[in-house]
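thought: fold this chain, then report.
action: predict
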Amino acid sequence: MANSENRLDIGRVMNNTFGVIGRHPAIFLGLSFLIVGIPNGLVEIVQGQPEALATAFLSPTAVLGSVIGFFVMTFFSVVLQATLIVATINDLGNKPINLGDCVARAVRKFLPLIGLGILMSLGIGFGLLLLVVPGVILTLMWIIATPVMMAEDKGVIDSLKRSAELTSGSKGLIFLLLIIFIILASVIGFIGGMMSFWSTTAVVLVSTLVNTLTGAIQGAGVASVYVDLRTAKEGTDNTSLADIFA
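observation:
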């Protein structure tokens, strides 16, 4: 049943986000560690060796490898978020999570997801140039466009329209939720920074851990927002959620 205000419930989103990660840590933290944590840890290592970095830019082979690596990491990052979104919606719909099926669905949507990401980046970027506020508004409108695309099998434009429809009336709460997550990420980063103060190795390890946590929270969080808004506006229950990927 839809709630009386048809608006986002921040407490429920937080509970769902951390609840799904807690119930499936191997999937959420494991995938995030492999696809986000380790690559960022390697970047920290390279940045800690400026001589090696400067030498690499003088090598055509290294430059080509970096370009290829960028596209590979883009692929895996997009697939990671989509996979965690599918897994979160399944969990919140009381449906078992099949990792292989989640990954397969994410890979099949890779090109539309890239198109969605490009269009969102252009729109939000242009909006930020117009005194910032329009970009922030577009961010809040389109924040659940990726879960919409994955769950409702819509195209790029329709996913943006559907996201704007679902977020209508809840933008202020979504903004507050983003602030909460930013503060949380900052606290995690600060604690990690204090722990990594004494050695380069500690910096790399802590950076890997922080990026792993934030990657998992991001994937589960945006899906939880989508689920909560559908529940609030349309009365979507667990049975309906379970049918999404049936």
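thought: worth noting. The chain has one domain: 10-107+164-244.
final: tokens above.
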